[in-house]
Amino acid sequence: MHKYLVVSDTHGHDDNFYKVLDIEEPLDGIIHCGDFEGSEGRFALAADCPVYFVSGNNDFFSDLRRELEFDLDGHRAFLCHGHNYLVSMDLENIRAEGIARDADLIFFGHTHRPVAKNVGGVWLFNPGSLSYPRQEGRRPSYLILTIENSQISCEVKYL
What is the CATH number of the domain that holds 72? Predict the structure, then answer.
């Protein structure tokens, strides 16, 4: 079994990220969907595992790529912040882009609201925000993704 931490929209407020690391380690990887606002280097140093990071719409001076495609335990992943695919309106644009890239795992942020659902065999994951949550109850959120024998399971967790 492989365990991945998925976070997004930390916006330079890192305390909750480090709390989550303490709770969830050991990890097989960390996926950050953008809007670090300068923390990406510290996050990479704190991680004792592979990291998959992209820049968000507020990462003005970041050298990170805006989009990333990679293999994750036999699955094809597409990672972006999501704002270029209008994820605040609906998820069809980002889902279509992921399908065009042969991805069955799509990771994005931007809305600050968690999503973990399978639509037609394609997983859509948004961990929400550890710093500025916008969903009902406004609790900082993240996702734990586990992959075992190609089977996907995901849990939205709250601090």
Answer: 3.60.21.10
